[in-house]
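User: My instructor asked us to take a sequence, write out its structure as tokens, and then describe one feature of it. I'm not sure where to start. Here is the sequence I was given:
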Amino acid sequence: MKRRLAVAVLILSVVALIFGQAAVAADSVKDAKAAYSQFVKAAKAKKMEEVKKLLAKDALSDLEKDNMLDLFTEMQAEIKPETIKAAKADVTGSMVVLKIEQVEKTKEGTSTTKMTVYMVKEGGKWKVGKPEGAK
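Assistant: Let's start with the prediction itself. The structure tokens for your sequence are:
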């Protein structure tokens, strides 16, 4: 009887852990998407100080070193916030990888832009990181 109770408690603990991790992952994705949306809005408004605060330190450093911050910000300003909500995401530790697909219909036809955004947790906040594999 005690053995069955111990097994039941173990199984329930594992199930609770799994569902707890899923909830944490879902919250991480939600928070990372919200942070990226805030970043895009700052880029659209050309609020460079806010843009800098929403970039991870290493990403900001690399962009400034390569004189690419303005170009990067202009490119991000083109993202439509509604595409962020539809993004697929993978959660790995303190990183959320957002896969954004933006479809635009024009008179000439349809164009699709796909992009991957790496969000990293830095100082307890989600920030736009540099792409995986970047120097």
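For the description part of your assignment, you could build on this observation: The longest helix spans residues 2-44. Try explaining in your own words what that tells you about the chain.
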